[in-house]
Structures are given as structure tokens and as C-alpha cells.
Design a protein that fits this description.
The protein is α+β, with helices and mostly antiparallel strands and about 200 residues long. Helix content is about 30%, strand content about 30%. The strands form 3 sheets. Strands 3-2-1-5-8 form a 5-stranded mixed sheet, with no helix packed on it. Strands 4-10-9 form a 3-stranded mixed sheet. Strands 6-7 form a two-stranded antiparallel sheet. The two termini are about 40 Å apart.
Length: about 200
């Protein structure tokens, strides 16, 4: 990341210096050429030079995007599958465990349309990789308070990773219209300490 920052800053400084030099010369020279109607050569130059400059910025940027997209040694991988109209989760890193997560009917002291019978549980301060897909139609696995929104598309496995640094209970909902009961497939995630997670 530092290399790309220095590289991009160097290119921007060169552009700034060159444009400043040209503008200064334009302000202070007294030469004019009133019969100049077109300049094919100069137009070719100011089209090709920015294209080359953008290439020098784009190539390291694309390389960096692919590097950042890879999750380095996640502690836990969780697979989430969207169904009409519930979520299922698979934990395979420790002891294999999978369960379905349905919306609960509201009882005392519970959040209406957000509480589920089986919460997804994660350890905090741990790198988590989510693999998200769907079995029927397009869903969207979303937890707004974490800034997470990933589409669950049939036949495609989308990946995202996050690192959460506090305990708590976080709610979300499917945010892609997926049928009649779209508003009744909530997501409930509980973040607990790693010690409690190992005994969960």
C-alpha cells in the first residue's frame, strides 16, 4: 500500500509541476498566433500522454485490489445460504456444524421481525471470512451496523471478510426483494469472546 501511495503521489506531483509550468508560461509570454486554426500534433500528444499516465497509475492499482481482496488466514469461515425465506449457516473449521435460522414470533423483550431461533455466533477480534450464496433466488445478506451488504446469488459464491472488535448483538435483514415473505428473513449475529465461542 505504501508503494502505491508513493507511486501515485509521484505521478500527481509530476502532473502538477508540468501543468503549473505551462500555465505560468502562458500567462507571461507575449506571443500569439492568430492564424492557428487546428493542431493535429498537439491534440495527439495531449490525448496519448494522459492515457499513458493513467496506465502507470492503473496497473499497480489493479494489482493492489487483488492483493487486498484475499483474506489472509481467517480464523473462521462461515458459509451462509439464502433460502425462501430463511438463512442457513455452516461452520466447518472446528467441528462441523450447520443450522437454519428462522424468524421467531415476538415475545417479551425481543425485537420484532429481527429475532431468530438460531443466531449466527462469531468470536470478536478475529478475522472472519463469510461465503455467501443462495439456493433459489437472489437474496442479500446485510448487517447495516457493520457496514456489510453482500448479494447471495444462486450458483455464485461471494466472499467477504471482516474483523469485529466488540461484543454485542447485531441485526440485519435480506435487502433484496426475494418474494412474498422477503421482509420476514432477518439476520441476527452475536459477537462473543473467543473463549466462550470455543465452548459454544
Amino acid at each position: 500500500i505504501n508503494f502505491f501511495h508513493d507511486h501515485a503521489l509521484f505521478v500527481l506531483m509530476m502532473i502538477t509541476i508540468m501543468v503549473s509550468y505551462i500555465m505560468t508560461n502562458l500567462f507571461f509570454n507575449k506571443f500569439t498566433y492568430r492564424n492557428l486554426l487546428d493542431g493535429q500534433l498537439i491534440e495527439l500528444i495531449w490525448t496519448i500522454l494522459p492515457a499513458i499516465t493513467l496506465t502507470f497509475i492503473a496497473l499497480p492499482s489493479l494489482h493492489l485490489i487483488y492483493i487486498l481482496d484475499e483474506t489472509n488466514n481467517p480464523l473462521l469461515s462461515i458459509k451462509s445460504m439464502g433460502h425462501q425465506w430463511y438463512w442457513s449457516y455452516e461452520y466447518t473449521d472446528f467441528k462441523p456444524q450447520d443450522f437454519d435460522s428462522y424468524m421467531k414470533t415476538t415475545e417479551n423483550f425481543e425485537f420484532r421481525l429481527l429475532e431468530v431461533d438460531n443466531r449466527m455466533v462469531i468470536p470478536f477480534e478475529s478475522q472472519i471470512r463469510m461465503l455467501i450464496s443462495s439456493t433459489d433466488v437472489i437474496h442479500s445478506w446485510t448487517i447495516p451496523s457493520l457496514g456489510i451488504k453482500v448479494d447471495a446469488t444462486p450458483g455464485r459464491l461471494n466472499q467477504m471478510s471482516f474483523l469485529w472488535n466488540r461484543t454485542g448483538l447485531f441485526f440485519g435483514q435480506c435487502s433484496e426483494i426475494c418474494g412474498a415473505n422477503h421482509s420476514f428473513m432477518p439476520i441476527s449475529m452475536e459477537s462473543i469472546s473467543p473463549n466462550f465461542f470455543m465452548s459454544w
